[in-house]
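Page 47, continued from p. 46.
Same chain as before, 254 aa.
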Amino acid sequence: MGAGHAHRLYLPGASPVHRLPPQCKLVAVLVFVAAVVATPRERIWAFAGYALLLAAVAAVARVPYGVVLRRTLIELPFVVFALLMPFVASGERVTWLGLSVSEAGLWGAWNILAKGTLGVVASILLAATTEPRLLLLGVERLRMPQPIVQIAAFMLRYADVVAGELRRMRIARASRGFEARDVRDAGVLARSLGALFLRSYERGERVHLAMVSRGYDGRMPAWHAVGATAAQWTAAAALPAAAALIAAAAWIIP
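Result:
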């Protein structure tokens, strides 16, 4: 199994953020998200500060803001849910933009949107500056159980293979004149999914046998060492340290 091609979420670059070891970036993102979650929702200025921190990281990493904004569309279902909260939540009602809404629902919607969006943007920047295989190495360096790392590695490597198989099946159906129009075509699509499962299972069996024949014993050989120096840990700590200061100030300042 080779290292594979770069994932489409990764943006190749040579910025200081790209060069940081993956375990440093993983810890930095986790601490940043923890600081955001721990911030009282009423401290709107604190969330503006977090947004500025992420904007600074994107600028240093040379990740275009437009790319980040486009990728945040992944949270659109949660945005829809948050926008419904002021109308369905109970509690004291207030008038907002000519509509009667729940005050608790408004704060709840803001809480979900602000914290969720910041977490999504932090994850987007992590994915844009770190190759997936290096992320797995970083997780392994952080003492994640080996079976979990292996499952994630195989999922990452073969998700594109399964997607390609599904695409070929769709083309084959279209070449035979099939086009899903209504619920009556659900049977064809269900049989296609069943065939996809069988093909994926059979391919997995063949790959496993090939790996065992080459000496696979449940642990993939390391691609290379991903050590981190004290200077790299210090550089990676800039984001979570600033976020922790903002979170502490949000609790202290009334």
